[in-house]
Predict the 3D structure of the following.
Amino acid sequence: MKKIILSTLILTALYSCKKEGQKTEDTTTVAGSVSVTENTASATGAYTSKELSPEDLGKYLAQKNDTLYVTNFFATWCGPCMREIPHFKNKMEELKAKPVKFTFINLDDKSEWNSAVKKFAQENNLADNIILLDGQKLDAGFFTNNFKQWDGGSIPFTYLRKGDKTDEYLGMMTEEVLNSKIETLLK
């Protein structure tokens, strides 16, 4: 019961601020048959992030192959999330020639996608690595079906998968912890 209440409070906090945003939508596919919606800013065309449904995100998270998937759940209003992003960017640069895919699942309110999220994506050159997730579509089943530890109660949260091996980390990752977890899964 506490988990449900906590999840509800977090989701409510995520969606309490509303701003007007503009977007155009195109449907494409990513990672096989997973259907996504692209969120494109009309000003420059340089900002494009994908939107996934919780069901399609679950399929994405379940991929089992030789690629190491590092998936970080974050929001632009989350201080610890923003402090750990440079560690991920450093590791992305270091491993760009290896079979490692970094994805950032944004949990900002949908009304922030073309303002705060767009600004973050452009400033950090991460638009191609960001997946937008409408938290209002999440339910407790999403968390129990996809994760062993995370109940959606707080962020940042990082999920790593390579084949059948997975690792979960709740809270802000230091560069040392990130390096250790990636090294372990790349062996």
Q: What stands out?
A: The radius of gyration is 16 Å. The longest strand covers residues 24-30.
